[in-house]
Design a protein that fits this description.
Elements (H helix, E strand, L loop, with lengths): L1 H53 L13 E5 L5 E4 L14 H9 L1 E8 L4 E9 L5 E7 L3 H7 L1 H31 L19 H54 L8 H30 L7 E4 H18 L3 E5 L4 E4 L1 H17 L6 E11 L3 E10 L21 H6 L6 H11 L3 E7 L11 E9 L2
Parallel strand pairs: 7-9
Antiparallel strand pairs: 1-2, 1-5, 3-4, 4-5, 6-8, 9-10, 10-12, 11-12
Helix pairs in contact: 1-4, 5-6, 6-10, 7-8, 8-10
Keywords: Kinase, Membrane, Phosphoprotein, Transferase, Transmembrane, Transmembrane helix, Two-component regulatory system
Cofactor: a divalent metal cation
Subcellular location: Cell membrane
């Protein structure tokens, strides 16, 4: 960056210097051209006075090495020319400077000379006898001036280039010094500092990026820890039913089970196998949601119909647990995956039944409401009259393998992954999930025990 700033400053300084030099040369050329014409007019007046006083004798022994003098009659005939034989010259009546002098007494022109074949400056004066005295000299050209001054110009250019190089180098170092001294690990230190006012937006952006990187790093570490815990918990959860199955199978193999208990042991093996299968299925589903492997195919889904289907599926389980299951509301549509939406409702209702009490109930409420920032939202509330969740456990219920009541969860066949699957599926649908619960310790006076999960989705 220092080199780029140096090159920029040097090129700008050099450009200004060369432009200034060109301007000075142009002004000098204009001034010298003006002075040349001024001197030419003076010489013409002196010559006119000499001719009027002495006539043709004035031209005898006349030394005009810097100027050319021509005497022209009123008719345009050349009477005398100190550079060319007058008898060989054309009539000059049509020359611009001659015509001006005949009309106003004075004429001047800068044009190509046909006689000398070069650019000439002319000044013409009309005499008393109406003849014309004309003085001319080779016109000063810009190239001539440049060649005349080439040595001093080259000297000035060399000095200017060297000086601009040194100044640009020093200035670029001075500009870069505050930037080189910046501690980018702590950019917030320089906020409000006048020396860094121009780069404050960059420093703020760097600070934001550092905060984002720090947050990302923390999230990566947190995710790695969760995965590590998940692997350990999954291994433990899979070992438990395997040990139970292995133990029961060993007893059956060694004929250590009475005949009347064989069916009971077989039922226990089947139950543990079913639990292990459900656990493996939940682990696979959660892994897909984590990795993005569960592709969300957007369809127009009737959430009310999904709730009714879940109610019908869980009706036998609810009846066995002596829990009533109700669906309230009307047909409400959302965009999403029918399978994942069914999984959300199913897991919430399944938990509401498992952690309920005999004679309890589970209510599913569906409605729509307008939100000032998010537009129209579809709300699903799953309320149960169960045992509730202790306040200290509410923040952890969405963690994998976390169980509020471990003994009851295993008795009910839970895997500890249902609410994690629900949370991921809700997030994939751009929704939110909240929980409010009261148990024996947390319920206030007149407040019934129970849990309510509130899920919101963008409505169609």
């Amino acid at each position: 960056m220092n080199k780029k700033i140096f090159r920029t400053i040097w090129l700008v300084a050099l450009s200004v210097f060369l432009a200034s030099l060109a301007f000075i040369m142009t002004v000098s050329y204009s001034y010298l051209s003006s002075e040349q014409l001024k001197q030419l007019r003076i010489e013409a007046r002196l010559a006119a006075q000499g001719v009027e006083r002495l006539g043709k004798d004035y031209f005898t022994n006349l030394d005009t090495k810097d100027y050319r003098i021509t005497w022209i009659s009123e008719s345009g005939e050349v009477l005398f020319d100190d550079d060319v034989n007058a008898s060989n010259m054309q009539n000059h009546k049509e020359r611009p400077e001659i015509q001006q002098a005949q009309k106003s007494g004075f004429g001047q022109a800068m044009r190509h000379s046909f006689t000398l074949d070069d650019q000439q400056s002319y000044v013409a004066l009309r005499l008393a006898d109406k003849s014309i005295i004309r003085m001319s000299t080779t016109q000063l050209s810009f190239l001539t001036l440049l060649l005349r001054w080439i040595q001093p110009i080259l000297f000035v250019v060399i000095i200017g280039v060297a000086l601009s190089f040194v100044l640009a180098r020093q200035l670029s170092k001075k500009i870069m010094q505050p930037l080189n001294e910046l501690d980018f690990s702590r950019p917030e230190r320089y906020f409000g500092n006048e020396n860094y006012k121009e780069v404050e937006p960059l420093l703020m952006h760097i600070a934001q990026q550092q905060q984002q990187l720090k947050a990302n790093q923390e999230q990566i570490e947190k995710t790695a820890l969760i995965r590590q815990e998940f692997t350990a918990n999954a291994s433990h959860e899979l070992k438990t039913p395997l040990h139970v199955i292995s133990g029961y199978a060993e007893l059956l193999k060694n004929k250590m089970v009475p005949d009347e208990n064989i069916t009971l042991f077989a039922d226990k093996i089947c139950a543990e196998a079913t639990r292990m299968s459900k656990l493996a299925e939940d682990i696979i589903n959660l892994s897909k949601l984590d990795s993005g492997g569960a592709e969300l195919v957007h369809e127009r889904c009737d959430l009310y119909q999904i709730c009714k289907n879940v109610r019908d599926s869980l009706e036998p389980t609810a009846t066995k647990a002596q829990v009533s299951l109700y669906v309230h509301g009307d047909h409400t549509f959302v965009s999403g995956s029918p399978g994942l939406l069914h999984s959300i409702v199913y897991n919430l209702c399944d938990n509401a039944i498992k952690y309920n009490r005999p004679g309890g109930s589970v209510h599913l409420y569906l409605d729509q409401q307008d939100d000032a920032t998010s537009g129209t939202l579809t709300t699903l509330r799953v309320h149960d009259t169960g045992i509730g969740i202790p306040p200290q456990d509410i923040d952890r219920i969405f963690e994998r393998f976390y169980r509020v009541d471990k003994s009851r969860s295993k008795q009910a066949g839970g895997t500890g992954l249902g609410l994690s699957i629900v949370k991921h599926a809700v997030q994939l649908h751009n929704g939110t999930i909240q929980v409010q619960s009261f148990n024996g310790a947390g319920a206030g006076s007149g407040q019934a025990e129970g849990t309510t999960f509130t899920v919101t989705f963008p409505a169609l």
